Amino acid sequence: MLFNIRNCVFAATIACASLSLFSLPASASSSLLPQNSFTQKINNTTTIKNAISSVYAKWKGVHYRFGGSTKRGVDCSALMQHVFSDTVDMHLPRTTREQIKLGTRISKNELRTGDLVFFKTSRYQRHVGVYIGNNQFMHASKRKGVTISSLDNSYWVRHYESARRVVDDYTA
Questions:
Q1: Where does the record locate the signal sequence feature (predicted)?
Q2: pLDDT, tens digit, for every residue of 101-143?
Q3: C-beta separation of 21 from 112 below 8 A
Q4: 4 pLDDT exceeds 70?
Q5: What's 107's domain CATH number?
Q6: How many domains does the chain have?
């Protein structure tokens, strides 16, 4: 474990996932709450970026598989579950539909390392990744597997939907 966060909560969305620290509504299931309390806080962007880079090194190139959650094949929301579990010891919900409800909605120009980015790829499907800085995000691509892409890519520009800040206990 690279670092932990104190008193965090998170969730997931259809087919994909990402990072988050937030307060759940009273109606949210208690099963989404972290299993333990954590004492060490994230103190800078470099630390979280290094942690995400470490996860990327382990998953780079793993093929995309809808519903997959292992190195034999992983989808975007399951990858986000691994990213957050391995970096901040958070247990995200399984789907992008749930993950997009987490944290605080932020504008594209407010993105910080560790924020979740969401894309509407069809009428009923979403895609999620984690922002890593320099207008790039890590995700599980159907064509390239686990990879890093640019938010400036015309495909991602056309399908960008929103971003959510789920980890607030650090300063950029």
A1: 1-28
A2: 999 999 999 999 999 999 999 999 999 999 999 999 999 999 9
A3: no
A4: no
A5: 3.90.1720.10
A6: 1
Per the residue annotation, which of 16, 82, 91, 127 is the catalytic one? Answer: 127
Q: Which domain holds residue 157?
A: 30-165
CA distance 116 to 106: 10
- The secondary structure of the chain in percent helix, strand, coil, rounded to multiples of 5, reads 25, 25, 50
15 in a domain, yes or no? no
Query: 8, 16, 76, 82: which is the annotated catalytic residue?
Result: 76
Annotated active-site residue 16? The verdict is: no
Q: Which two tokens stand for residue 53?
A: 């880079």
Sign of the Cα pseudo-torsion (151, 106, 115, 96, in order): negative
Structure tokens at 170: 């650090």
Looking at the domain assignment, is residue 18 inside a domain? no
Q: What is the pLDDT of residues 75-98, one digit of tens each?
A: 999 999 999 999 988 889 999 999
Query: Is 82 assigned a catalytic role?
Result: no
Rounded CA gap, 1 and 109, in Å?
Answer: 30
Going by C-alpha positions, the residue among 35, 30, 33, 13 that lies closest to residue 22 is: 33
Q: Does residue 159 have an active-site annotation?
A: no
Q: What is the CA radius of gyration of the chain?
A: 14
Closest CA to 113 of 40, 33, 53, 31: 53
Q: What integer pLDDT is reported at residue 90 of this predicted model?
A: 86
